[in-house]
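Appendix B, example 12.
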Amino acid sequence: MAEQNTQAKLKNLLKQERIQLWNPPFTQEDNQPGDQHLQELARRYAPLLNLPEAEVGGALESIRAQAVERGKGNRTFRETSVATLELLLPRDAKKEPKVKKFLETRLDVPGQQLVDRITEEFSVKHVKLILNGRTLSVDQRLDEQGVKNHSKVMVLKVSDAEQISKEEEEKKNQKESIQRTQKGFQILSERDGSEDPDTTPFLEIADQKGNPLKIPHQEKKALILAMGFHEKGRSLMKRKQYDNALCHLLQADQQFSKCGSALLSSVDNYAVLQLDIVWCYWALEALSCLEDGRNRLQRAKECFLKCYGEQQQRLLMIKGNTGREEVLFLRLYLLQSLLSYVEGNDRQALLLLSKVEDLYGRLSPDSEKMSQLLVLGFTEREARLGLRACGGDVQEAAIHISNQRQEREELKQRERRKRRTRMEAISSLMELGFSRTDAARALHHAEGDVDKAYSVLLDSQAGRSSSQETVSPEKVEQLLYLGFDRPSAEEALRLTGDDVQSATQLLLDNQGVLSPDLLSPPSTSSSSSSPSTEEAGSSSSSPEDSELVNEVLEDISRHEEDYLDLTLEEESELISTLKTYLSRGPSHTV
């Protein structure tokens, strides 16, 4: 990190003086360094940076060598269309941590070819490639995915074949993990809250007070998937599995992109996700992903401002205090300070770090006060969040935690009553001959009013009856000729869009008699993956789906403010590291 800081400062100085290290006299005709001229430059710059001359000389040579290599790469690319990529390898794959790794490849080849080259040349198995915060597809060409000459590609390990058996490796493979997470949350996103609340998990999107948000179906599905991948990623971060975590977090980012900006500005999840992604970059020592990291932190800041208000007034109005959310700003400023330092901007890094230290002093848990609250029967999490919410006042924190417990229980009971009432209404409509899916959908459109839902269902049936007139008489005759009765033939043609072949197959599959479920109005859902009619009920209770749902629910915290419960231990370590580095040189920007 200090090396990147020194090089960034030197590049600024070289740019100001228009010095090109790749040209004479700093680089000779055989691309060897012009040692005497580099030493003179190091002697001149060392006092400006308050660093040893030898260290500055080494950094200048590193910059010069990189520039020469870049020039050679540009010539190679122009002449042969072979690009040079810089690889950010996993830590345990770097035999020489400070030596950059490069790989030459054509860009008109599929991603899989690059994966194969990397696994072969660097002895790493099962990798995923990341470019500018996006996962590269193995099936698509590199140039079609934005890979260019000199692109920096991050290499993430997704499983460790040497630590687990072949069978377990297949099971734990990252691709399967992502697929299972996606399927599990898709099942949950399709559930409409009509199942028994005692036996069937159900997810609902709520605001900061826990009140359900009304969201269009497609956006709700995308948001649940995004939040599901995010929760899985956060769970992996807690276990320090940052490679795996980053894969899931980037999947969450992809799902969030399907949500409207109005929705993203009403929930802070998107901003927290950006912080988590950049935190993983730091943990994986991938700070050369600077551009992407800087953009993500800016998006996080903008999202926090929209959600909380410029002076957090909106948050104060909603929650009554802002103490708990301040840990998010602590992490935001800390990461911004880190990136400023790596860019060589010490002054900005120090200004941000002073904000961080101020917040850390206020938010770091006091062990004595924590003990007092633990004696009262509160959990560590409740004590920590309560003290932050109440500015460190133990008595107020105890009252605050008790009130929160009561509010949480009342909200839970209210939701259970609402779901039971909904179940009873759906059961009533099913007794009148309608399917569960149609009853649930009609009730949703009628905002819970059973009588209105009944009218909606009757109107739907009337529309279906009138559509029978559009069935082709000639095609009905063809089916009658095959031995089917007229009512079934007409219904089969209606259900298959007047397609004789499909109608014939449908009648054969059902022994010539169509069940009431098949005769119910077709689903109007715009999602091709959503289960139809009774499948929603049966599939959600299948052993495989139940296992998937339980698996993904394990990664969801039972406490809605888990993301605010930072112990600040990791933050404390990074603060100390940055202070050490910043104390080395002058606090001005070169």
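The radius of gyration is 31 Å. The first strand starts at residue 82 and ends at 88.
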